[in-house]
Amino acid sequence: MRKASLVLGIVVSSVLSVTFVSGEQAKQPQGAQEQPGPFGFPGIKHLTESLKLTPEQAQAVHHIYSEYQKKEHQAQ
Question: Which of 15, 20, 48, 71 could make a disulfide contact with 53, Cβ separation 3.0–4.6 Å?
């Protein structure tokens, strides 16, 4: 009985997680899509708006994303 409750809890939490993620993706505006960051992180524009980054901070994020892209291409 305890095992069944545990399995049910895991299934319910998984469904809720998928629902939450789907809801977050639905909130993104349609139209011109922004290039996502590495590992599926949000793009720079989205980060700048949601975190209210200063121009210097946005530039630092851009630099980090660019460095990652260079390393990724080298690895391939």
Answer: 48
